[in-house]
Structures are given as structure tokens and as C-alpha cells.
Amino acid sequence: MLIVADENIPLLDSFFGDIGEIRRVTGRNLSRSQVEDADVLLVRSVTQVGPELLAGTQVRFVGTATIGTDHVNVEWLKQQGIGFSAAPGCNASSVAEYVLAVISQFAEQRGTEDWSTLSVGIVGAGNVGSELARALERLDFDVVLCDPPRAEAEAGSEEVFVSLLEALRCDVVTLHTPLTRTGNHATYHMVSDHELAELGSEQLLINAGRGEVIDSAALMRRLEQGDAPLVALDVWEQEPRISPELVGQVWLATPHIAGYSLEGKVQGTEMVYQALCRFLGLPVRKKAGQFLPEPALSKISFTSNAVEDEAIRLALRACYDPRRDDLRLRLAMKGNPDERAEAFDRLRRDYPVRRECSSLKIQLKGTSKSLQDSFRAMGFKLKI
Asked: Which of 7, 164, 184, 324 is least surrounded, with the fewest CB atoms within 10 Å of its CB?
């Protein structure tokens, strides 16, 4: 059995080596000639999968180690009898921790001593949005959810959903929707001139969902105005050929890596491995945990003298500081469009190991119950 796989999917040999021969390929430029003799195709979001790539090939199963599926023509695969699996929720914790780190930095810049006094509007309450909401609510943030499809489907449930306009009134607005171009609640350019005009200079807009959800031209116009909001973008229109001008205008710019924790990436591989085993009728013998290495930083200690906000900020940034990715991306925005596009992909391909909060043990000596609860809410392991 021949398995053609994106070279950036981690632990390919560990999970799939005993199922078949693995041929590693560059996902962004994958061609039909590279997959025509494959039985299994494993991709990420940079590969468009549909009849143009697979018609007439012998591929019988496609797996994407990502939460999103807008790069895959799922209906066509179904019509062809080709098995398919994504990895929904695999990096939800990673993206939630990215957003928490960005909010922490925003609170510090604003001089907000208690970051939980910030209100947060989450637009898109799927796996990622729901995970983020749970963490923020455990941290005592005021959180509102905007998800029109869920609001319609769950009418009468206890969950309360607000309109996009209401969500845009929050101190922080963070986008986690899929990319859809048709239907009553299409998300393509969902945030454009009208929506951006609702945001002011004391607010923060984060997009760690899909780049095309924000109209980039409208965003540039808004950012050129004196009362513009702060904007943190992890996803961009026209990746990898993103706009260097837009990078220069936003407050925080990262190269589509919000979900790039080692745990998130390995869990994505594991979920596709499990689906392929089910498709082939094979036993599932491997789990992500058995392949995770010991983290470089394993423990931080705080004493009774720790200031709560400072301790939270320090622990979060010990796991992930988005300013480092911001710097790397800004440095990559040099040269011609081809060079910038290659640099963007290289930042993702060669992304340094990043571990989630669950990999770090927090030792607490005489600290408050409030601080203990905050660390637990963010997923840290505690030793008291």
C-alpha cells in the first residue's frame, strides 16, 4: 500500500510506517502525477483536494490532519466512494491558548490589572470556540457567543447566542468560524467595512480561524483611520502570498500557527490514523501520548509572594509568547512576492516545538485558591 503524505504531518513513520510505504511530498504544490499510484492521501489545509487532483487515480482514502475541510471537496469524494476523515478539534486547546496569550498581551498593553474584567465576544462556537469559551468562563471572563447556525439548530436550548453586532461590542472579538461562501450564514468577508466601523481604538480583533472571513481591503482602510482597533491576525487572505502592507498595519501578525502546538499536531495525526485503521479494518494500536517527548521546560514554582496577574502572564508566556512569531513573520516580509510566499511557508514548515500548558507543572507554595483555580482553568498541572 502506498501512502502519499504531506511532509509536514508529524510522526508519519510512527503512526503509518507499518501500514504501508510512505512517500513524502510538499503539500502546497502537490500534483496529480505524485498521487496517481497512491492508495492513501494524507494532507493539510494547504492542499486542494478534488477531481482535479484525484480523478482517475487509485486513491481510496483521504485524510486531512486539520480541523477544517474547506480545502477538500468532500461531496465529490463521497460520490467516488473514497473514504475521508478530518481531525475536528485536534488543535482546539492550542488555538485557545494562542488567544489567551494574545489577550494577556493586550491586557498588559492597556494597563488592565485584572485581565478577566475584559469582555470577550467569540464568533464561531464550534470545537475551538467552545474550548476557548470554557477556558475564559473558568477564568471569570464575561463571554458572549455568536454562532447563527448553532442558534438556529439549537433554538430553545439553554445556550445563549448573540448577534454579530452584539459580539462586536466586546473589548475583545475573536473569530473562529469555518469558511463558507454560500447559504444564509456565509462567512466569506463576514467582517467588512460595516462591521469594522463598529470597532474602536480600545478594542482588539483576533482572527485565528480563516483568513477570508475578514475583507482585507476593508481592514486596510479601517487601520489607516485614527480610531482603528488593534488587530491580531494569524490567518490571512491569499496565503502564502499575504500582504506585507497588512502585516505592517496590524498590531500582531503570526503565520497561521495558532494551532501548531506539538500536542495539537500529533493529535491530528492520531485522529487520521484511527480513521484509516477503521477504513481498512485494522486494529488501532497507537496513541499520541506514547510519542510525545519530555518538554524542554517542565516546571515553574511560585511562592506566596506571587502577584496573580503577573504569575499567570509569566506561566502563559513560558509556554507560548506570540511576539516571537510576530517578529519572525515581519522579518520574512522582505524581497519579492515569491520570496515572501516561500518564507511564509518556511515559517510554518520549520516551526519550533511549542508545547501546551498541560505539559508544564506549576508548583505553588502558599498561593491563593484564586491563583490555583486560574492555573487549572488554563490546563496547567499543579503541585501544591
From this structure: 184
Cell numbers 500536542 correspond to: 263
Q: Are residues 196 and 233 in the same domain?
A: yes
Has residue 272 been placed in a domain? yes
Listed residue (71, 74, 95) closest to 84, CA to CA: 74
* Residue 362 domain-assigned (yes or no): no
Q: How far apart are the first and last CA of the chain?
A: 51
DSSP secondary structure, 333-382, as one string: --SSHHHHHHHHHHHHHTPPP---GGG-EEEESS--HHHHHHHHHTT-EE
Same domain, 135 and 81: no
Distance CA 22, CA 6 (A): 10
23 and 68 share a domain? yes
Cβ contact 123:168 at 8 Å: no
Catalytic residues: 210, 239, 256
Per-residue pLDDT band for 367 (boundaries 50, 70, 90) equals confident
Residues 101 and 177 in one domain: yes
From residue 251, give the alpha-carbon distance in Å to each of 10, 233, 270.
31, 8, 35
Dump pLDDT digits (tens) for 309-363: 999 999 999 999 999 999 999 999 999 999 999 999 999 999 999 999 999 999 9
Tell me if 319 is assigned to some domain: no
- Other CB atoms within a 10 A radius of the CB of residue 326 amount to 20
How far, in whole angstroms, is CA 301 from its chain's centroid? 29
H or E stretch covering 51 = helix 51-54
Residues 63, 66, 67, 71, Cα dihedral to 10°:
-80
* pLDDT, tens digit (0-9, with 9 covering 90-100), for 182-233: 999 999 999 999 999 999 999 999 999 999 999 999 999 999 999 999 999 9
- Which of 95, 367, 108 is CA-nearest to residue 234? 95
Which residue shows C-alpha cell 469594522?
A: 196
